[in-house]
Amino acid sequence: MNAHSESIALMHKYLDGDLNKTEEQQLQGHLEGCEDCQAHLRELRRTIALLQSTEHIEAPVNFADKVMNHLPKEKKRMKYKRWFKTHPILVAAAVFFIFMLGGMFTDWNQDSNLQLVVSKQENLIIKGDTVIVPKDVVVDGDLLVKNGNLIIKGVVDGNVTIVNGELLESNSLDGEGLMASVGEINGELKTVNRMFDWLWYQIKSFFSGVFSTD
Amino acid sequence: MDQIIREKIREVKKGDQAAFSDVVEFYQHKIYQHCYRMLGNAHEAEDMAQEAFIRAYINIDSFDDGRKFSTWLYRIATNLTIDRIRKRKPDYFLDAEIKGTEGLDMYSQLASTDISPSDKVEGIELQRYIHQEISELPPKYRSIIILRYIEEFSLQEISEILDIPLGTVKTRIHRGREALRKRLRHV
Which residue numbers delimit the RNA polymerase sigma factor 70 region 4 type domain (chain B) (predicted)? Predict the structure, then answer.
């Protein structure tokens, strides 16, 4: 590499702001004694000045509007995709809810085909589709009866839930008349007869299961 | 401004098409000018600048929020213009000369309005001449010269826009400057 091409390489480094101290001195030293290189640098600077002085060109009027009119309409699938991406929790909740509903429907359908179901069998009398809590019997805990009626002569120490059936007054059935006293329920009585009630009951019991602290 | 653009891009990604119009408003002149300098004529410049924005919109999901939007947009525009130059038919240049008359009209309008400070290049003819010389540089030098001296990006930013190593940007800018020096030395 001869002195000129070397100094031209340095000029370009200089124009890019990449010169170190020694290179700067080297370039200056050469330029002082070389008119050709001085002219070369002057021409480079002038070239840059000419480029920088070109006026700014603006886009045609309505350019932005034209662009907007040419944008593709958003596809519906795309919208859903975006929505799913931006709302993952809602999507998860929706999917979960669908499964839960499905589960409940199957539950319901199975149950309605089944015969009488009682949660606690001990000390209870079952006559046909009627469950009787006899006198002097204390049911300790919640009592659930599905697909049958319930007569309480004794005491239930908890909540009573009857699905697809009802709580009968004891005298209306066994003819003991006014003598019989209606038993006690030391808790809530719930009668669930329709699908909606059943669902509501399931949801409530699900959430109380999830959120109960004990 | 970067912050506002960032916000708008986020809205566009969420599916808000209208937010994109602010992005177009903000960058339209820069991108149009870039295409115009790359391609040398107003007709193709408008087509390609428009295409650049449309591509940006369609591929917005692939834009990484952590990066600068302008860099990404310039890259799309540069690639489109270089593609266009490659695909030109050999007889295209005859058309280009005819279309050059549009450019003349535009220059005459501009000249009458806003250029006049002493550091600006005076005269329609000179502007046309410089523009012509830029358009005749090989595209790989042309893009760098335009980005560096007309759009005033740093060499580092140019390396990101064109996705080539910084060393290559420097080599090309040296060659581009030399090529232009030879063409413009008599001006």
Answer: 128-180
Whether residue B128 lies inside any domain: the answer is: no
Measured between CB atoms, which of A55, A72, A79 is closest to B110?
A: A55
A83 to chain B: which residues are within 8 Å by CB?
15
Residue A96 is predicted with a pLDDT of 86
Domain ranges of chain A: 3-52, 114-211
- At A176, the pLDDT band (50, 70, 90 cuts) reads very low
Backbone angles phi, psi at A97, to 5 degrees: -65, -40
* pLDDT-derived band at B3, boundaries 50, 70, 90: confident
**ipTM field:** 0.79
Residue A114 in contact with partner chain B when CB distance is under 8 A: no
CB contact (8 A) between residue A57 and residue B33? yes
The domain that holds B50 is classified in CATH as 1.10.1740.10
Contact flag B50-A66 (C-beta cutoff 8 Å): yes
Minimum-distance CB partner of A59 among B14, B29, B150: B29
